[in-house]
């Protein structure tokens, strides 16, 4: 299921996944009173991991470094806020597809314009679009402006009049997000193994040759940008459901940069690397914050140490350990 | 529109643009010559502002503070280049992004630890704390004029150094072909160290001299950094001339945006950038 990964690595990842999935079992025993808080924390990290994976499709696979990816994350959240009726629960089967379709449409338009540029210029154009999105929600009256907007009633999954999944329950939300994380990972693995994914990865390595072989790189990049945007929208939808709140900061470049750091730190182009990156960065933040109010300082040192010591991120180290060199990377 | 009002906006826009140019010129040279995407450049701007604030309080003179802050910023820049950045020249651009991102975190937190999280202000020096009366109701502060003057002199000086001196020749050669410069026997390590230090000093200077018209706070470098990246890509990476034009464009767009479309002021800057890049995907000069 995990594509071309070495067996040992697959095993490690499955063990980690199992530990995560069983957290509602061992968590209360290990952390007692803090359990509920940690459950929420882990749910939040998994949402960011989905966002990081979607960015990895662009940065690590297609070689498109976007510094505006959070715009689609935030847009997903805002779509939920706008589509949710004020006093009753929205139907998940209606609002989720609608959100993802809307975000995909916007990313297709942005992508169409942005992929004309390359390299650092692409970074800056995506930054520009991201900031435009930020200011759009910050300055307009559409959904609360700079104060953000609340989603008073979380979406539910209903069948035949009974509520099957209520996102208001922390525990069931945890499993919904976990399911989404695994589903997105497997989906992206399937995409990467497909002919489309092969061409996309080739574009990331050498665009000129791909064009020489008769493919149109622009079309592939555009589709990748749209898929990544839609998945970021999914992550934003989940984030908005978790906190019941959206604010323009979700779209800003700080958020985009933060996710990009997760991707690079974890190991670009490996899909599981960005997930690890999200967990390492967020748990380090959480742990350091508990020890010192000046947690940013050791955090900066940690980031620098990882760059200097691990050229291909944490995933690169794992791949090396498990006896498969050279996979992943740029 | 009233002529004097318009003039004031133009002066403000030009002054803002010149200030951005001081920061952006270092950024564009560091990227053009060394191939480093230096996210920590905004941190040097912040550091300069904090040094000026601190030294102005200790020495009692902003001029002395600004002059003293220059060698400190340059030295810190040189040390960071020698210790950290130098190890990454052969690595991917994104590794440099990550390293300099780590540096931002450290700089922001270190300034917060040294000078607190409060917002500080620096008073305008007594001798410059007056305004030129334009009409009965409108006047223009002399400090801002002087700020523009200093930046303009520095910009001209930079042009002369780059266009007329041997060091400038190395810089230009480095920007167009790094490997060839090394092959010709020029000490590239020294050149890179100097460019990085000068860039840091210029950014620090911009931060230092702008303290009387802005507030000194942790994280103040972040928004400047982003605007300077906008300036650099509009002008074309590595081009000083482009950075100058880009800075003017952004300074004026931002100022006039705030006057004419206050609701979408922040939009204008990014709108200008998107428009320029869609028209010329590699910037104006490149």
TrEMBL record, chain A:
Keyword annotations for this protein, in alphabetical order, are:
Cell membrane, Membrane, Transmembrane, Transmembrane helix
For molecular function, the Gene Ontology terms on record are: branched-chain amino acid transmembrane transporter activity
Cellular location of this protein?
Cell membrane
Sorted alphabetically, the Gene Ontology cellular component annotations on this record are: plasma membrane
* Transmembrane regions: 42-65, 70-87, 93-113, 120-137, 173-192, 219-239, 259-283, 295-319
What topology does it adopt in the membrane?
Multi-pass membrane protein
Tell me the PANTHER family matching this sequence: ABC TRANSPORTER ATP-BINDING PROTEIN (PTHR30482:SF17), HIGH-AFFINITY BRANCHED-CHAIN AMINO ACID TRANSPORT SYSTEM PERMEASE (PTHR30482)
Name the chain's protein.
Answer: ABC-type branched-chain amino acid transport system protein
TrEMBL record, chain B:
Q: Which GO biological process categories is it annotated with?
A: amino acid transport
The GO terms this record gives for MF are: transmembrane transporter activity
Membrane topology, from the record = Multi-pass membrane protein
Give the family per the record: Belongs to the binding-protein-dependent transport system permease family. LivHM subfamily.
Q: What protein name does the entry list? A: Branched chain amino acid ABC transporter
Organism lineage: Bacteria, Pseudomonadati, Pseudomonadota, Alphaproteobacteria, Rhodospirillales
Mind listing the UniProt keywords for this protein, alphabetically?
Amino-acid transport, Cell membrane, Membrane, Transmembrane, Transmembrane helix, Transport
- Which sequence ranges are marked TM in the entry? 6-29, 36-56, 62-85, 97-115, 142-162, 190-211, 223-252, 259-279
């Amino acid at each position: 299921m995990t594509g071309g990964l070495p067996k040992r690595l697959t095993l490690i990842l499955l063990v980690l996944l199992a530990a995560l999935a069983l957290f509602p079992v061992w968590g209360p025993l290990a952390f007692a009173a803090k359990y509920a808080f940690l459950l929420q924390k882990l749910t939040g990290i998994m949402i960011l991991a989905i966002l990081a994976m979607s960015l990895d499709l662009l940065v690590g696979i297609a070689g498109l470094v976007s510094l505006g990816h959070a715009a689609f994350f935030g847009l997903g959240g805002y779509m939920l806020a706008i589509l949710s009726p004020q006093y009753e629960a929205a139907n998940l089967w209606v609002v989720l597809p609608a959100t993802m379709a809307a975000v995909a449409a916007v990313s297709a338009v942005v992508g169409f314009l942005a992929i004309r540029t390359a390299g650092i210029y692409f970074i800056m154009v995506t930054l520009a679009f991201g900031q435009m999105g930020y200011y759009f929600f910050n300055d307009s009256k559409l959904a609360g402006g700079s104060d953000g907007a609340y989603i008073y009633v979380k979406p539910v999954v209903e069948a035949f009049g009974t509520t099957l999944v209520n996102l208001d329950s922390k525990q069931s939300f945890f499993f919904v997000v976990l399911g989404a994380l695994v589903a997105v990972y497997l989906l992206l693995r399937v995409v990467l193994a497909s002919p489309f994914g092969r061409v996309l990865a080739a574009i990331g390595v050498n665009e000129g040759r791909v064009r020489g072989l008769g493919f149109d790189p622009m079309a592939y990049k555009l589709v990748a940008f749209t898929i990544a945007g839609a998945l970021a929208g999914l992550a934003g939808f989940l984030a908005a459901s978790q906190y019941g709140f959206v604010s323009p900061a979700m779209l800003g470049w700080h958020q985009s940069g933060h996710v990009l750091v997760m991707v690079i730190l974890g190991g670009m182009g490996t899909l599981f690397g960005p997930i690890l990156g999200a967990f390492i960065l967020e748990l380090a933040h959480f742990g350091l914050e508990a020890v010192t109010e000046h947690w940013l300082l050791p955090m900066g040192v940690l980031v620098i140490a990882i760059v200097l010591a691990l050229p291909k991120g944490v995933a690169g180290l794992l791949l090396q350990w498990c006896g498969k060199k050279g996979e992943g990377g740029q | 529109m009233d002529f004097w009002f318009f003039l004031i906006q133009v002066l403000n826009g030009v002054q803002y643009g010149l200030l951005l140019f001081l920061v952006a010129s270092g950024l564009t040279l560091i990227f053009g010559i060394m191939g480093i995407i230096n996210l920590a450049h905004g941190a040097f701007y912040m550091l300069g502002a904090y040094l000026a604030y601190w030294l102005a309080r200790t020495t009692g003179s902003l001029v002395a503070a600004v002059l003293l802050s220059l060698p400190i910023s340059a030295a810190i820049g040189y040390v960071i280049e020698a210790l950290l950045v130098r190890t990454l020249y052969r690595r991917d651009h994104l590794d440099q992004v990550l390293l300099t991102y780590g540096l931002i975190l450290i700089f922001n937190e270190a300034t917060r630890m040294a000078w607190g999280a409060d917002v500080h202000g620096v008073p305008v020096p007594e001798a410059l704390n007056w305004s030129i009366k334009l009409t009965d109701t409108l006047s223009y502060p002399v400090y801002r004029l002087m700020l523009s003057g200093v930046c303009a002199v520095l910009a001209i000086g930079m042009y002369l150094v780059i266009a007329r001196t041997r060091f400038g020749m190395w810089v230009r050669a480095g920007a167009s072909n790094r490997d060839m410069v090394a092959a010709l026997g020029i000490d590239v390590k020294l050149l890179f160290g100097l460019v990085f230090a000068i860039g840091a000093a210029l950014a620090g200077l911009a931060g230092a001299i702008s303290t009387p018209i802005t507030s000194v706070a942790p994280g103040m470098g972040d928004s400047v950094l982003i605007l300077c990246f906008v300036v650099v890509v509009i002008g074309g990476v590595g081009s000083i001339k482009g950075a100058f034009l880009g800075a003017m464009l952004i300074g004026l767009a931002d100022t006039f945006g705030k006057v004419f479309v206050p609701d979408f002021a922040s939009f204008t800057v990014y709108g200008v950038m998107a428009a320029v890049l869609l028209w010329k995907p590699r910037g104006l000069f490149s």
